[in-house]
Amino acid sequence: MEIFINGQRQSCRSCTLLELLAERALSTEALVVELNGDIIQQEQWPIVQLKDNDTLELLSFVGGG
Predict the structure, then answer these.
(1) What is the pTM of this model?
(2) Which of 19, 3, 9, 57 is nearest to 35 (CA)?
(3) In this predicted structure, what is the pLDDT of residue 65?
(4) Is there a contact between 39 and 58 (Cβ–Cβ < 8 Å)?
């Protein structure tokens, strides 16, 4: 299956959003996920099934001053 992550086409196996994040060892602490233009709440990550040609934007927020 092919999806777009932050504008880049990537191959992945069929999985949920949470499985993809875990597979890629991404910290979920301050992560915002947009799937096909919609913000996905963290509580939904385990049940959102990714599909071929989905578009993900993954944004991490970092505090500072």
Answers:
(1) 0.86
(2) 57
(3) 60
(4) no
Q: Within 10 Å of residue 32's Cβ, how many Cβ atoms? A: 13
Using an 8 Å Cβ cutoff, are 56 and 4 in contact? yes
Fold held by 2-60: Ubiquitin-like (UB roll) (3.10.20)
DSSP letter string over 1-65? Answer: -EEEETTEEEE--S-BHHHHHHHTT---TTEEEEETTEEE-GGGTTT-B--TT-EEEEEE-----
**pLDDT tens track for 1-53:** 999 999 999 998 878 999 999 988 888 888 999 999 999 999 999 999 999 99
Domain spans, the chain: 2-60
